Amino acid sequence: MTVEYELFHKNIKVAQLEYDPDVNKIKDIINVVDRRHLPVGVQNSEVFPLGSAMQFWWQNRLIPKNRARVLLENPGMTKVIKYSYGFNLTDHYWIKAKHDDMTWDKGNFFTNSFNEDLGKFIVSGKASAVLKMSSSSPDLFSNGEQDKRWMILKNVRTLVKYGRPPYYEQPFNEVLASEICRRLGIPHISYKFAVKGSKFISIYSLCPCFASETIEFVPAGYVQYVIPRQKGESEYAHLIKCCKSLGMNDIDLIERNLGGMMVLDYITANQDRHFGNFGFLRDSESLEWKGLVPNFDSGNAMFYEYPTSDLRKSKSVMDNVPCKSFATTQKLQLKKFANIMAKSNFDFGKLKDIELFYESILCMNPKIDTERRELLSGFLRERINMINNTLCRNNPVVLSFKEQLRKIREDDNFLEKMRDIRDSVIKARPYDKTVIDNYLRSFSGTREEYERLLKNDVGYNDTLNKSQRKNDVGGIER
After folding, report:
1. 150: helix, strand or coil
2. pLDDT tens across 329-350, in order?
3. I need a surface site. Which of 96, 163, 192, 434 has the fewest CB within 10 A?
4. Percentage helix, strand, coil, to 5, in the chain?
5. What global pTM score does this model have?
6. Is 66 left (phi over 0), alpha (psi -120 to 50) or beta?
7. DSSP code, position 430
8. Cis peptide preceding 166, ω within 30 of 0
9. pLDDT digits (tens, 9 = 90+) for 150-188
10. What value, to the nearest 5°, has the Cα angle with vertex 186 and ends 270 and 237?
11. Cα separations in angstroms, 326 against 257, 274, 334, 391
12. Which of 252, 145, 147 is CA-nearest to residue 202?
């Protein structure tokens, strides 16, 4: 039966709705009370009618069907779902029946405890605790297909995500991604992993909640609907245009952080970076944007589902890693966005021996044998070599710079003219400075060394020590 409900954004009434709690659907919008606080992306009637957009937004907040089936198959859960207010640990929206006395302060999960039995039931399917369950749980509104649940550890809201068969690699990949980000200085959420049990083994990752009582997460998937996408416009260009339309500050920093995300995803062969697991943070009261959310959700990476027999075919595996963000494959995304990635000026020398770190944590996974560990660590090392080569020496900015240098290779004043060309390029395009300087770090300042560089035969291991230099660029003073 359809009942009149009210949608709130924290303490602000946003809209009056026709809502059917039995099927968890918003049927229609009766009245918009505060348009500024409508969910991001639903205001644009040029993309979707408001009622349809609101239902799309609401449905995407819910636990997906593949994980909800254990709830829906249990008759005792009907009441739990029906009386949920929609509180979660991601954003600050919630609903209540018109005359209900619920408030944000009484119900939100950032400051109030919640029922953890529901989450345990969702991931295990064991019905023993059903009678103790209530709708007071963020697990009804935790999207994504991987098994997960929320718990409170030492007063910290913590997300627990479980590895999936056959190899249960996702928790280890989350820790690998955290370590890569830490070394390169990429903003990220820190993950830990745990392996529990002997006969029945449980393998999972843990990370703190990155939203808070004042700051919420807005996925890029909603931001992209702020304005219509023009014909022929790339998804990346459109997303940046939407950020500008929303009044986000420091677009250059957002682009650098997106570049860092793409670097991480290439190195880890992440095949599940989509518009739902990256996005932006904002203050839910002032609506002030706080920039791109730190990197999270990197588990579906490092060929986590590929049979070991497929990993032996290294060439085809490395070249065809799927991508869901801004290109169809990670290889193509690297080619298309090399300039953006290179502007972050990452020192890949800091990833020295990261493959040994990865292999050491994989040793704690009882589902992976020695051959698979060695193959995966080898792939990791190879992908670092490949991205370092592309970003430092084969991105479009550097290729153009090298083309100019080829014309002066025989000149007696080679170094002086190289300096002049560099200065003229960065004067015309200041944002290219870090790209060119990163390239020149591999150059020691002799003609012979530059000849080697032009042949692209300076590998990752050869540049590790040279890349540490801070005060000179290829023997040329800044």
Report:
1. strand
2. 999 999 899 888 887 778 888 9
3. 192
4. 45, 15, 40
5. 0.84
6. alpha
7. G
8. yes
9. 999 999 999 999 999 999 999 999 999 999 999 999 999
10. 70
11. 14, 9, 10, 17
12. 147
